[in-house]
Amino acid sequence: MTDTYTQFVNSGFGRSLAKQLGLPAPVPLRRHTKGGPLCDGPVAVIGEGEHVSDIVQLLLDHGIDTSTDAETYGGVVFDMSDARSPRDLAHMRENGADIVKRLGRNARIVVVGTDPDLLDAPAEVATQRALDGFVRSLAKELRSGATANLVYAPVEHNRPAVRSAVEFFLSGRSAFVDGQHVRLDENTPGVNLSADEPLAGKVAVVTGAARGIGAAIVEVLARDGATVVGVDVPAAQDALAKVVNRARGTSLALDVTAPDAGERILQHCHKRHGGFDIVVHNAGITRDKLFVNMSAEKWDQVMAVNLESILQLNEVFLGDEGLGTDGRVICLSSQSGFAGNRGQTNYSATKAGVIGLVDTTADIAADRGITVNAVAPGLIETEMTGRMPFATREVARRLSSLQQGGDPVDVAEAIAWLAQPASGAITGQTLRVCGQNFIGA
Amino acid sequence: MGDLTVLPEPPSLPREFARALLTFGRDGVDGEIPGTLVQTTTTVDRDRLMDHQRLCGFKVNDTLPPTYPHLLGFPLQVHLMGSADFPLPMLGMVHVSNEITVHRELHVDDELTLQVGAEAMRPHAKGVTVDLVAAVTVAGELAWESRSTYLHRCTPPSDAEDPDPVEAAMPEPPAVPAGPAAAVWKLPADLGRRYAGVAGDINPIHLHPWTAKAMGFPRAIAHGMWTYSRTLAALGADGIGTSRVWFRKPVLLPGRVALHVAEDHRTAALASPKDPDRIHLVLTHQAL
Amino acid sequence: MTNMPRKVAIVGGNRTPFARSNTAYRRASNQDLLTAALDGLIARFGLAGKRLGQVTAGAVMKHSRDFNLTRESVLATALDPATPGIDIQMACGTGLEAATTVANKIALGQIDAGVAGGSDTTSDAPIAVNEGLRRVLLDLGAAKTAAQRAKALAGLRPGHISPVLPATDEPRTGLSMGEHMARTALAFDVTRAEQDAIAAASHQKLAAAYERGFFDDLITPYLGLTQDNNLRPDSNAEKLAGLRTVFGDPETATMTAGNSTPLTDGASTVLLASTEWAEEHNLDPLAWFVDAETAAVDFVHGDEGLLMAPTHAVPRLLARHDLGLDDFDRVEIHEAFAATVACTLKAWESDTYCRDTLGLDGALGSIDPEKINVNGSSLAAGHPFAATGGRILAATAKELNELKQREGGTRRALISICAAGGQGVAAIVEA
User: Fold this and answer.
1) Residue B131 lies in a domain
2) Closest alpha carbon to C394 in C116, C156, C174
3) The most confident of A17-21, A378-382, C350-354, by mean pLDDT
4) In what residue span(s) does the Thiolase C-terminal domain sit (chain C) (predicted)?
5) Between A and C, how many residue pairs show a Cβ–Cβ distance under 8 A?
C-alpha cells in the first residue's frame, strides 16, 4: 500500500514540487505477507558478541544469505552486546559503514546491545547507552524505507528472546517501527507453535474492534492464527459483525466502561473459547477541545474510556479467573502521550497514563508469566485536520524518518508480535510505531 | 505550482461537465499538467450509497465499497480536467487502469476530506496518459486513495526523449485466469444510464446507442467503474487492501460478460462468453 | 437412531432494529435485511465458516425474483456455502412456523443445528402489473407470428398502466385485516380504553427493555438504526386517546393507528440446535423449544374472527402437555392490534366461547397481565410480518433464561401469534 504523497512525489510534477520544498521522496514500505521472505536480499552480521551464531542461524533458517561481499544488502545486524568501552563502538563504523552504504530499498539495521540498566561500571553503561543515540541517528540517515532499531538483551544469555526480537525488526512486520529499542528480560519466552501462524491456538480479546485500528488488529491477529473475540459497543455491532465474520471470530456487545464489562468478557471467553490468552485494550475516543474550553463531559468521557476502563478490566483479567501463564496485555498509547498535542489535553493525559500503567502493571503480572506492554501509533494531526492545506499537512506527515504516514496494519503488526509466545521477555514497555516521527522522538 | 483549491462542497457535476466540454479540441500534448490540487469536504448520502451497493452487487450496509469514494471524487476530477490550464480535452478520454487502496474502511457517517490532483503525462502506444490521483482522509488519517489513468488518443509524442524517468504507475497485469467462467452476467441496455444516475458520470458513450455512436462506439458501453465494482463485489473484496484494474475492450450494452476467477481469488477477469480472448478487464486484489 | 425426539435448544437470536415503512430501510430489500440479521447472528455465535443443517426463513411480501430468498441470503453471509436455505411462508406466522420446522428436524435427528428467520419490507414491496396487461404480455410472449403479436398488442388498454400494489386485504372477503379485527373487537366488547392501555404499556415496556440493555445481544444495528423507530417511550393512554379511529363503523369504531401495528420493515433470526451441538460449540442454550401447534379458523363462512386461530391452537397445545394457562411464567401474544390481545384473553376467559367455539368444558382461564408481553411487543416494535416470530421467540427465550437465573426452577412461556388467512401458531418455550 502506498500513500498518495508517495506517488505524488514520484511523479514528474510532484518530484519537482518536492524538490522545491526540499521534501524527501518516500518509497512504498515492505510489509509482511504470509510466506514472503524475511528480508529483501542478503543480511550481514557484524560483531563478535555471543549472539552472532544464533543470528546467523536465524538467517539461515529463513534462507537468507549472510555473505559479506554482496552488491546490495537487505539488512545488517550488529551484535554489540559485548561492547564495554566506548572504543568498542568503533567496530560498527569500521566494519559496517561500507555495508550500510550498500543497503537496498526497505533494508533493516538491527543493533543488539546489552541493557545498560543491568550494568554497573560507568564506562559499560555509557557504552551501551551510546547505542541508543547511534541507532536513532542512523535511522534518520537511512533512506528508501530502511529502518534501524535496537534490541537490548539481558546480561544473562536469553537466546530465544533475542532471536524473536531480531526476527521482528528484520521482517516486514516492523515496517513502520524505526529508531526504537526494546528491552528483553531474562525470562525464557514461550515457543511459537507455527512460524506461519505464531498465534495458533491463542484466544485474543480486542476492544473497540469494529473500526479503524481495532479492525486491523482483529484481522492481523486472525491472520496469525488467533481466535479473536471482538468487543465493541452495541451501536457498532453491524460494523463489528463484518470484521469478526471475516476473521471467523465472535462478537461481544458491551461498553468497556460498564461496571460488569470485565466479568462479561471473562464469562464469554471461558464459556465460548475455554479461556483467553491475549487482551488488546484498543477502545479509545477523542473529544478534542482547548483546555480552557474543555467541558466536564469531554474530559470525563475520555478518561473513562481510555484509561479507567483499562484499569478496571485489568483488575479482572489479572485476577484468579483471568489470563493464565504466557498471557499478554497490550494497550494502545499514542505519540501524543509522549509529545502532547494541542487540543488534546484530555486525550494525551490518558495516553501518557497508559505508559505508566503498563510499566507498573508489568511488575504486578510478572510472577504469573503475563507480559504487559503498550504500542504507541504516530501522531495524528487533530483540530486542523481537513482544513489544513494539502502541502502543509503533507509536509507535517513527512516529519518522520520514513517520510510517510503509517497504516493501521503497522500498529496491528507490532501488537501481534508482542502477543506471540516468543515475545515473553518483553514487558512493561511502550513500543512506538511512528516511522521515527520527529515530534517527541 | 502546487496551488490548492479548496471548494466548500463537492462541485455540481453537470456544471463541471459543461465546463469540461469547452475543452473540446484541446491537444496540448506538449503542455504541462497543472499542479493544482482540489480539495473538498463531504459526507455520504445513504440513499445514493445504497443504490450504488445494489447496482454493483455489494452488500447493502453502512460500509463504503472500495470504489465508492471514486464516485465522490469524480466531480473534482472533472473540475480539474475542465480547468483552463489543463492541456487535454476531457471528452473522449479513456479510462485505462485504476488502483485503489483502502487503508481503513469508510463508514457512512464519516466526514470525508477529498483531495484530487493530476500527474504528469506519460507516453502511451496510442497517445498519452494522465493520472488523476485522489485521497480521502478522515480526521486527518489517510483512509483511502486511488490512481485513475486516462488515455488521450493522439499521435504519441514523437520525441523519444523521456520527459521524466517515472516508473510505470501500475505493474503489468497478471495472466487472465484459465478455466471455465465462474459466472456469466447479463447486462441490461439501461445499465449505463442507471450507473450514470448513481455516479453522475454522464459521458454520452455510456448512455444510449445513439450518443455512443456519435462518439464512435457501435453501442453504449458499460462504465469501467461499474465493471470494476461488480468484479470486486463478486470476489467479496470489500475490505482493506489494494486492488488494481486494467481495462481492455469495452463492454457493449446490452450484453453478456463472463467472470473468470483465479484459484486464489486474487485475480479475476471479465471476458466475452463467446470469445474468451476478448478481455474486458483484468483485476487483482491483495487483502491483508 | 435412539432417544428421539431430542430436546431443541434456543441458543440465541438476532434481528435488525425494525423500521416503519418508508423510513430507514426504504431502499433495503428482503434479502438485504435477512442477510444483515444473519450476519449479526453469525458474529455473535461464531458461525463463520460453519455448515448448518439448514436456514429456514421467509418473507410475506415477496418478489418473484426472490424465489430463493433464504438461500441467496445464506450465500451472501460468512456461513459455509454448503448450508441449505429454505423458504417458507405463513403470513405473520412465518417466523414461528419456520422455527417449528427447524426444531422438528433437530428433534428428529435430521439436522443438528439450524436458523429460523423471516424478513419483510413493505417499502420494497413487489408491485405487479395489472391483470389485463399481464394477459397481454403473456399473449405477446406466446405469439409466433407478427399478426399474433399485433393482435396481442391490440389488447392494450390505457387502464392497464395502473399497477397492482400489494395489499393486506383478505382475498376471500375483500376486507382488510383491520376491518376484520374491528368486527371481532366489537363482538368481544373490547373498549377503546382497553386497547389504548395495551398500546401504551407496549411502548413503555419496550422502552424499559432497551433501557436496561435487554436487546444488546438480540439486535444488530442496520443502516443507521440502533433501535426500533416506531417506539415512542413517552406514549401514554391520554395521548393515544386523542387519535382518530381508522377501522370499522365510525359509530362503534375503537381502533386507531396508535393501537394497531404500522407497516414495518425488518428481519429476525433464531439459532436452534440439539443439546449436543450446543455443547460441542460451547454455547449455553437460553431455553428449549418444547412444542408448537398451528391452527386455522373458518372466518369466511363461519362467524369466527380472522385473527382468532391462536385461541384454538393454545388449548390443543396445552392439552398435549397437560398444562393450564396458570403454568406459564410468561405469555407472549403478538400484538397485531391491541384488540387482538384483548379478544384472545377475553375468549379464553369466556365459558361460552370456550365451550361453543373451542369445544372445551369451560373457560380456559385468565392470565395475570403482569406476565403478558413483558418486554413490549409489536405495537411498539412494529411488525415486519415474517420477522415477528423470530423477534418474539428469541426475546422470550432470553427473558425466561433471565427469570430462571434470578428465581430458579423451571420457567415456562407460551407464545401465540395470529396470521392472515385465519391462521395462527402457538408454541411452548421452557428454561
Assistant:
1) yes
2) C116
3) C350-354
4) 285-430
5) 66
